[in-house]
Amino acid sequence: MADMFGLEGKAALITGAAQGIGYGIACALAGHGAKLALADINQDELERFFQQEPQFKDSAIKLRMDVSNATDVVNGVDRVMNEFGSLDILVNNAGIVKDALVMRMKEEDWDRVLDVNLKGAFLCARAAARAMIKSRWGRIINIASVVGQMGNPGQANYSAAKAGLIGLTKTLAKELAPRGITANAITPGYIETSMTARLEKNIKDEMLKIIPLKRFGSIEDIAFMVTVLASEQAGYITGQVIPVNGGMYM
Ligand SMILES: NC(=O)c1ccc[n+]([C@@H]2O[C@H](COP(=O)([O-])OP(=O)(O)OC[C@H]3O[C@@H](n4cnc5c(N)ncnc54)[C@H](O)[C@@H]3O)[C@@H](O)[C@H]2O)c1
């Protein structure tokens, strides 16, 4: 039976794929028959992924990529084009946090978070769009964050980058629509991954109080929305910001 999302044989590049949400997205898209290029700065973790998920061993491409480095990104996309012949889906998922209150935030921590979370998405989208234009079909999905919409003390760099990512998404949507390429952003709320595991219990308890659904999100909650937005049927959805946050911000 053909895959209900029309993802069979589509080539997907996922950044920050070695763990957490990126890993979950990779498993979901592979489950629907997509061919995967998995990019991450952390090669050891990516290698572990391949050991744990043997079904990817022969079919997926492993890319050592720092998304903030234009050469890494162009080389990665070139490899996808050489090996798969097309690039259909880009998921800009790589992201980092370097939290501090504004008055204590180091300039280098501001710069690095903006470089990875925002410039990285621009570099990947630019390279991917050039490839997608050839087949006049594409899906760009940016993993932003609820804090890009509502702000968060201690995360000026991160929330600015994620808000910027929303602006980038809308512009990509307008520029690329005539080429058959959609661009959308997902804004996860609090998702249980290593990024959030390090938060103290009292902060987690406070957060639960403002989540109407009274639970933290799962990796699968995000992977599902990526699958939907990547699908053939989502071709009339572009420039949108889709919250997956348990209702914590409406
Ligand atoms: N966990 C949450 O609650 C949450 C909420 C909202 C948004 N997000 C966003 O979801 C995405 C994934 O988050 P996660 O929780 O899975 O994080 P994570 O830290 O578990 O995984 C992030 C991955 O990105 C990779 N990475 C970091 N810098 C990179 C770079 N320069 N180039 C390539 N890869 C790089 C890391 O090695 C890691 O594998 C991020 O963009 C994050 O901002 C997460």
Describe the protein.
This protein has 250 residues and is of the alpha/beta class. The protein is built from 9 helices and 7 strands, in the order E-H-E-H-E-H-E-H-E-H-H-E-H-H-H-E. It has helices at 20-31, 43-52, 70-84, 107-135, 147-150, 156-176, 194-197, 201-209, 219-230; strands at 11-15, 35-40, 61-64, 89-92, 138-143, 181-188, 241-244. Helix 4 (107-135) packs parallel to helix 6. The model has no long low-confidence stretch (mean pLDDT 96). The structure holds nicotinamide-adenine-dinucleotide. Nicotinamide-adenine-dinucleotide binds next to helix 1, helix 4 and helix 7. Residues 15-16, 18-22, 40-42, 45, 65-68, 93-96, 116, 120, 143, 145, 188, 190-191, 193-196 line the site of nicotinamide-adenine-dinucleotide (NAD).
Instruction: Record the strand order, biggest sheet.
Output: 3-2-1-4-5-6-7
How many domains in all?
Answer: 1
Strand content: 5-15%
Oligomeric state: single chain
Number of strands: 7
Identify the overall geometry.
globular
Q: In CATH, what is the homologous superfamily? A: NAD(P)-binding Rossmann-like Domain
> Which stretches are poorly predicted, pLDDT < 50 over at least 5 residues?
none
According to CATH, the fold-level topology is Rossmann fold
Structural class by SSE content? alpha/beta
- Helical segment count: 9
Order of helices and strands: EHEHEHEHEHHEHHHE
Radius of gyration: 17 Å
Which second-level CATH architecture applies? Answer: 3-Layer(aba) Sandwich
Compounds present? nicotinamide-adenine-dinucleotide
Q: Span between N and C termini?
A: 38 Å
Largest sheet: 7 strands, parallel
Mean pLDDT metric: 96
Q: Kindly provide the name of the CATH class.
A: Alpha Beta
Helix content: 40-55%
